[in-house]
Specification:
Blueprint (H helix, E strand, L loop, with lengths): L21 H14 L4 H23 L3 E6 L2 E6 L2 H13 L5 E3 L5 E4 L7 H19 L1
């Protein structure tokens, strides 16, 4: 048992709600070693981010009153109407795409894909978002 006179924990003593999950620590370390062993992930993320910017720019042209903002793979489709963002989010969910709303009035449809997303998955997600926006906006 840990005491003032000892600076070592006995096995099983150091646990609790806010302690680390050793399996997650080990998995995280291995993932970092794998994905950051070179610059491939960074380069791929930049390319994917540019792909998303192009697609969302086209979406903004197709739907008047909609703008986009973001960086890297995190982007938002901004509407002046918070109820529109909520409806599009629900329509996207109904089609299998999970998005969130954000912004001071929940007027932003937020996209946060994983760094490991493929180009085909980006295209599919943008397609689902477009279909959802068409369903809501007409």
């Amino acid at each position: 048992m840990f005491s003032r006179h000892s600076n070592q924990w006995a096995p099983g003593e150091h646990d609790g709600t806010f302690r680390g999950n050793n399996a997650a620590f080990v998995t995280g370390r291995v993932a970092l070693e794998h994905y950051w062993s070179d610059s491939a992930l960074e380069r791929a993320t930049l390319v994917k981010g540019e792909r998303i910017v192009r697609a969302l720019s086209e979406l903004a042209v197709a739907f008047p009153g909609v703008t986009t903002r973001g960086r890297g793979l995190v982007h938002g489709v901004v509407s002046g109407d918070a109820s529109l963002a909520e409806k599009v989010g629900q329509a996207a969910f109904d089609r299998g795409l999970l998005v969130e709303t954000s912004g001071s009035a929940d007027e932003v449809i937020k996209l946060m894909p994983p760094l490991t997303i493929t180009g085909e998955e980006i295209d599919h997600g943008i397609h689902l978002l477009t279909v959802a926006m068409e369903a809501v906006c007409g």
